[in-house]
Design goal:
The chain has 135 residues and is mainly β. The protein has one domain: Thrombin, subunit H (Beta Barrel), CATH 2.40.10. It is 10% helix and 48% strand. It has one helix and eight strands, in the order αββββββββ. The strands form two sheets. A six-stranded antiparallel β-barrel has the order 1-2-5-8-7-6. β1 and β2 form a beta hairpin.
Length: 135
Amino acid sequence: MSVDAAVAAGRLAAESRMTSRCTVRRKTGASAVVDGFKVAAWAVVHADLPVRVGGASRGANPARRDDLGSGEVEVAVRTAHFPYSTADLADSDYVEVTSGENAGLVVRIVEATWQDQATARRVPVVSVVRPEEWT
């Protein structure tokens, strides 16, 4: 089997395991008024996108340090798997799992980098609180 055929088969297998669905949102830099409060405006980048939320990638540090201003905390880093064909993911995008085992989970993409010959778009994510302005 050629490398191209093996990678294509791997991509089909990986996507078949993405049984959850999600919505990916990005802050637009604009603001909106919701219930009399000025809040960040969000754009939907992807809707009803297949996703699988896994643990940390092998060999990766399962935690990272975040600065809260008043001190540093260590937060768990997980991995979100998207279909390989998924484009336009960016650092700091928010992903809301809308159906599946982790329905209701909201995570932020830490780093949206790509790799060659991958079977899925795998990005490190950290849990965040669901923004109140999302309806």
